Amino acid sequence: MSSLSLVQLVSPALPVGAFSYSEGLELLVQRESLNDLTNVAEWLEAELIRGQVIIEAAALRPLRQSLSNWKFSAEHGNDVLDWAHWLIALRDASEVRAQQQQMGRSLLQLLADLGHPLPDGGLDFGWPVAWAWAGLVWEIPPLEVVQGYLYGWVANQLSAAVRLVPLGPTQAQRLQHQLQPLIETQASKLIDADPRQLWCGGVGASMAQLSHAELYSRLFRS
Predict the structure, then answer these.
(1) Does residue 48 lie in a domain region?
(2) What's the predicted TM-score (pTM) here?
């Protein structure tokens, strides 16, 4: 059953609004930095190796433990809050911080509607916290939770790329499949990594996200 729960969690039908964000991809396409399959592949590979997403993925396991402790003791809610604040502070662009908060609230609301509210019934947590909570309450193995987080991020980026580059749906699926070994390798490394000891080199991504709001015309919210 856990595998089916993971499929539900990474499904594009999950009502969290992920389709409305490009995380700076739109600006890079408009500036012709990304204009074909090869460029998109290189961009995604670079982000999976040294982008912000790897720190969030590494934080999922300790977040899960803090959330599990919170179920039995209210004082551990502060640990979850510390993780949530630290992770959102790592995001440079206000649009991406808003994205993380909006998607987190949407997923937590969905989980509450399905009978799995947070211990305090709150919703004001970002996407990594919500994802870790989903993995805990749906009893998805920790490694699969990390794999799913990385896979879902790639899928959302490819969904944006199909509408922007342009990239054909078959090409996007080929690239998603091509990146699976890297996703699995990174997940295996990150599952036991201390997120506070990791670094990210996503300067280009941060600059694209910060500049996205200045576009004269845009399709995506960030």
Answers:
(1) yes
(2) 0.94
Asked if residue 91 lies in contact with residue 70, where contact means CB atoms within 8 angstroms, the answer is: no
> Which residue range forms the structural domain that includes residue 76?
2-7+17-214
* pLDDT tens-digit map of 22-69: 888 888 888 888 889 999 999 999 999 999 999 999 999 999 999 999
**Does some domain include residue 160?**
yes
| Residue 35 counted as domain residue | yes
The whole-angstrom separation of Cα 86 and Cα 81 is 9
- Using the predicted structure, report yes or no on whether residue 1 has a pLDDT greater than 60: no
pLDDT of 66-100, one tens digit each?
Answer: 999 998 888 888 999 999 999 999 988 888 899 99
CATH number at residue 176: 1.10.4190.10
CB 132 within 8 A of CB 64: yes
- Among the residue ranges 5-14, 111-120, 210-219, the one predicted with the least confidence is 210-219
Buried b (16+ CB within 10 A) or exposed e, 41-52: bebbbebbebbb
